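Chapter summary example.
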Amino acid sequence: MASQQRRILNIFAFHRVIIPVIIGLAVIGYMIFKDVSHSDISTIRLKWSSVMFFVIALLLVAVRDLSYMYRIRLLTGNELSWRKSFQVIFLWEFASSVTPSVVGGSAIAVFILIKEKIGAGRSAAIVMVTALLDELFYIIMVPVVFLIAGFDRLMVIGSTFKFLGILFGPMGVFLVGYIIISILTIMLSYGVLVNPSAVKWLLIKVTALPFLKKFRSGAEETGNQVILASSELKGKNAGFWIKAFGATFFSWTARFWVVNFLIMGFTGLIPVSDNLLIYARQLMMWVIMLVSPTPGGSGIAEYFFPVFLREFIAGPTGDLTTLVAFAWRLITYYPYLIIGAFILPFWLRRVYLGRRLIKFKRMQKK
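The structure predicted for these 366 residues follows.
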């Protein structure tokens, strides 16, 4: 346990924080140097409406975090206070920001909840349920938003990637990612809500194949977590699920609509149809960020932002796409690095030193 703690706490080391900052700023710097001329910057005409849109964008960031805090309180049966929920969520986001997106901060989230006296099995179950709710939101909202926005306007052209001899463009990466996410979410939903033992059996059987044997221990652990999650949620009524999914809906909707209001802050009011299309494009972009090998998607997010959204920002008088991308990352990514690094020592003092003080006082009383 001590070695595991050291390994997890090492994730929060300074060098891990500075790496995504350098990557992100380097990509933004290159894009500004390459794309943004003096004439582009001179086209910025901020109005009072721009200030209003920027304020709404900041409020949406707050809505996202408050929704996450409400959800973690709900899933823990209100065992966490609002203050503790704030620390848990921001440390969770901090961990996600300094680890590759393909890895995520789930293991660290379990560790954080354990230190909050939630219990190892229950903590793993709670983290799995949050992931399940997030993926359910995604696979439901993609067809809904795409249908409203119009499938004929979704196509984007950008860099291609070669995998197993096949070339994938942004649309190809999205489609493959969406199918994989849908299959995994349906399987986990069935396991958590209907038959957890069957999902564990399937995972173990699949990883019995020769080329998948190295994943067998991880599959068995995932199967155990599905069983724990199912046990944890057994007997929860419809009201619980409505609240949990409602919090998920508000958090993710707020996350995506930050971009819409930032764009309007720079360019002015845009039609509802374009707002829906911007939302749809972000749903597509999220899959690419999800499989990013860089910490928190640094560099990847900044690079693909113009690929998906330039047409809504660039105009005949100038192109502010890179500046909007920088503003987006400035309020939705870098604050978690700063706030997380600030919270960490206080949290460590509370969960480690605080418990030792309690034990010491008990010993004194005896």
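To summarize the output: The chain has a mean pLDDT of 80.
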